[in-house]
Amino acid sequence: MKRRTLIAAAAALAMGGSAFAAGHEPLKVGFIYVGPIGDGGWTYEHDKGRLAVEAEFGDKVETVYQENVPEGADAERAMTQMALQGADLIFTTSFGYMDPTINVAAKFPDVKFEHATGYKRADNVSTYSARFYEGRAVQGIIAGHMTKTNKIGYIASFPIPEVIRGINSAYIHAKKVNPDVEFSIVWAFTWFDPAKEADAATALIEQGADVILQHTDSTAPQAAAESAGNVITFGQASDMSEYAPMPRVSSIIDDWAPYYIARTKAVMDGTWASVDTWDGIGAGMVGIGEISDAVPADVKAEAEALRDAIADGSYQPFTGPINKQDGSVWLAEGETADDGTLAGMDFYVEGLTGDIPQ
Amino acid sequence: MIHLVKRPQPSRAWSYATPVLAVLMTMVAGGAMFAALGKDPVEVIRTIFWDPLFGEFAFYFRGQLLVKAAPLILIAVGLSLGFKAGIWNIGAEGQYILGAICGAAVGLAFYPMEARWLIFPLMIIAGALGGWAWAMIPAILKTRFNTNEILVSLLLVYVAEQLLAKMALGALRNPDGAGFPGSRNLSQYASASNPELIAGSGMHWGVVAALIAVIFGYVLFARHMWGFQIRLTGESPRAARFGGVKPTRLVIFCLGVSGALAGLAGLFEVAGPAGQISIDFNVGYGFTAIIVAFLGRLHPVGILLAGLLMALTYIGGEAAASNLGLPSAAIQAFQGMLLFFLLAVDVLTNYSLRFGKGEVA
């Protein structure tokens, strides 16, 4: 093949694209992962979604993936290479792939892209995310009841709205059941780095925390809590049930499978359109993992009631009165947060100490 | 029994042959690993070494090869100066980060003014100065207080990473970024971007700079007094001192040049392929360049080839991971094998093999 512009190549792919609609070849679905598929957390769950797509459609799809793709210039190449190889639909599953996804999508107008947790869309780029903060509310209730030292450690990844929402939601609900609770937050600046995550967990435990919440993807904090003893944790992104019943007492499970199946089906049917999806417990995108026997029955019942109230829409985790950290009013009595504010959340709520890194 | 006998002179023929031999041995051992993973070894090796250069989509990958190799070559040429003289700058990664921060900061300071003739050259100067200044810290500490430049330059990488996070979250953060960290995208700001000079070629100013650095490096060693002094210092520090080489000036020169080149690499990356200052902007070019420098035998042309080979294993490796479903760890192991074999067969350059009973000790 002679040197051509990418646009020409993309046009050729588009022709290939129309061929599959007639049932001549399988739909090719690509996945770009930020961690290894064996991380036991975030990427592991996305890969389960990929396998569910394969199980659902059988011979009608072919899936490809690339793991450990750094967020930045390398991601752009990984996506381009998938598009060149004939992918019809590409899921880019980390926030840092946002600009690369938009750039590559502009070069391949006939390939559909789905970017997780970002906010930039285009005609062939959808965004999707889950309302993890709903799960954090349930965690907060359990954590507030379970802590004896009243110190809760939180391993945060990057200071982006998604992570800040999680911290605020967990804190509000822990405080509700235990007014003396304090949060210590460590910013790890990584999504997946078992050594760093274990260090953070150990440091928090040494400072007296007996509950560790994590917004990073590996099971290392679970292992650190297990060896320390008498510390509880929650599975992050995946159930992490191998650490149940202690230290892992529950979990937030990301279930991407229904979404991935639906979007793949939409491409097959020719009904795919650019949308912004943000689903939570109610739609099943966020699941609460089995609450283990380490949690007293009444606490478990309270947590499950909260989960059900969020699921049926009768309760919104950010319901006033809530003040911002500086004491100013954010939500008045009974007022609930709108999605726009939540999507760009860059402040702590009242009572949290320390600053968001900036 | 096999004996190693030291050669009176390092073998010239072997110093050319060992890299090729190492690549071949890597293909055999790596192929065995891929076969053990249940993949067709020939197909994997072809995907890594052949397809990016001559395959169906080579028109794209050849350009990417340049994009990936340019920062490696630019940094490695700078490092090779010091390495030849026994001055060990291990912190190119930090100098790369500082170059990116300083260059991007200058570009962002002018946003949204349109004056490419002014802004882009200023960014280049700022990038080089940023890297240079970061390298001057270990240089001055070494010449003044005799500290170990290996430790100081390495530890400054971690300081630079913290500074990078601080910049992405604070001073250089995109005010229109919806609360997310990271600067504005420089590649979308015409006056500050480092675009492809010919669309689809991968050729950006960083590639041009890398080629110029190779030529300068070559001329320096072949013709210039500094090049001679560097070689002399590396080979015989005592003779160098008697010959009038001033160690202090040499340390400042070598660290300064390598820092400036690493800074330039960072600037061209942040304004081009990466596009923005983000918390995890750096992906290890500064460390990989150390390998490239030695792989290229500290010779500018060797470094050029080594940088391209390294880039090929990255790009081909990624393609293999994606197309053939290989775990990324297998690709890393494959790259590791390449370096291992290079070091292992290097022994043939300095030693010859003797077969038979141990009559020669």
Describe it:
Chain A has three domains: 6-131 and 256-279, Rossmann fold; 132-254 and 287-316, Rossmann fold (3-Layer(aba) Sandwich); 318-350, no CATH class. With 358 residues, chain A is α/β, with parallel strands linked by helices. The longest helix of chain A is centred in the middle third of the chain and has 17 residues, at 161-177. Chain A has eleven helices and 14 strands. The model of chain B has no long low-confidence stretch (mean pLDDT 90). The radius of gyration of chain B is 22 Å and the shape is globular. In chain B, strands 1-2 form a two-stranded antiparallel ribbon. In chain B, 49% of the residues are buried. Chain B starts with a strand and ends in a 6-residue tail after the last strand. In chain B, α3 (58-84) packs across α11. The longest helix of chain B is centred in the middle third of the chain and has 30 residues, at 116-145. Chain B has two domains: 1-39 and 334-361, no CATH class; 54-325, ABC transporter involved in vitamin B12 uptake, BtuC. Chain B is an all-alpha fold and 361 residues long. Chain B has helices spanning 12-36, 41-54, 58-84, 92-110, 116-145, 149-169, 205-223, 225-235, 237-242, 247-271, 285-295, 300-324, 328-350; strands at residues 2-6, 351-355. The A-B interface holds A 1-6, 9, 30, 36-37, 64-68, 70-74, 76-78, 80-82, 84-85, 95-96, 99, 119, 158-161, 164, 189-190, 343-346, 357-358 and B 56-61, 64, 67, 165-166, 169-170, 173, 178-181, 185, 199-200, 269, 273-276, 278-281, 283, 315, 318-319, 321-323, 325, 327-329.
